[in-house]
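Worked problem 6 (solution included).
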Amino acid sequence: MNHSKNITKNLNIGIAGLGNVGEGVINLLQKNSELIEKKLEKKIIIKGVSAKNRKKQRNYNIDTYAWYDDPIDLARSGDIDVFIELIGGEDGVALEATQAAIESGKHVITANKAMLANHGNFLIEIAEKRKTLLLLEAAVAGGIPIVKLLKESLSCNSTAKIYGILNGTCNYILSSMENNSIGFDVSLKEAQRLGYAEADPSFDVGGYDAAHKLSILSSLAFGTKIDFSSIHIEGIEKISLDDIQAAKEHGYKIRLLGISEKKTSGITQCVQPCLVSDKSLISSIDGVNNAIVVDGNFVGAITISGLGAGSKPTASSVVADIFDIANKSTVSNLGMPTNKMKEFKKIDEVVDNNQYYIRMLLPNIAGSIASVTKSMAEYNISLSAINQRNNGKNNTNDYASVSIITDITTSASVNKVLDQIAKNGQVKGIPTIIKIQQT
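Solution. The predicted structure is:
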């Protein structure tokens, strides 16, 4: 695949979007300009910028750069070789400007996972026809070079599974609940105060941000087209301090994981809270850090972790993509040409075999637990551990919080027995069910 272009001695770029990441890119290019020039034997020159508000107070000077009120004009400008899209949003001007840049023969770098999850196949097909690159290292896991790892270093491996912590906001909230013994709402407010969570955090805590990233990773790992619509998504909104503490007593921590796995009949993709062993490497990932595990058939399981968001780490990934363009990379945008990629084959009915954590409020009377375990035995669910806690904030004198770790079973069996228990009036409210992920 030939991506050669008539690039001058210097590489001219345009940046659309001057938020935290845009600021980070400009600062990195300015601060490390000497190092970059030595490595590339050419300069990277910012020829133009575009943002919503030219007069906004910024921590850096943009007066030396040509200003474009319309990012689409910048995308089409003959003065640039590379268009960097940092606007955000799955469609609208971000999508229009990206498409305009590709159709104008420009290479494009984007940090926009939502746009790629929803329109990536379309954009990459256009890029291939125009023989340009659409690079996306910054769209997944901030400064962690997972895209390059999958596209290049592990490209000769057949990947069976990829999973990990893909959202720093959720990881901060869960690890803060765990470390500080505080509830979800308190932890979320602290994350917002520190700037780790948006005023409207639903995109993060609902699991959608992680799902956008997972759809891209699945494509890279399995050579399939991006299919965001096939991801089963659960957020962390229902995780309580009782769950965090009960999991700890059983030897686990709760993490929001994105999991994509290849089976003989297709691929499963899900984003959901999971229990992971407190002895596992992934359980040690605290705060806003991300971690991703790739299981290759020759290398085995490789874990890569680091800062998954933020101005500086994400800027590092953007500039790494600039290096690939400057070095005239010929690696396909998603690791292989789209005409060689398979259509995503979703498994609708999965016979899963996992252990599950179940927490429920049971009447605080003799025989309650025995009644539940009897019901579970009727559905061939055996138990690995059971624990009763009487000091949870949701408990009253009449009810106790009971947590159960099952042996290996299926989600269908768990749901059936819980329906039966609910019909018998054995439980108060809705039980919490969380899959245990083997790591």
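Discussion: The mean pLDDT is 91.
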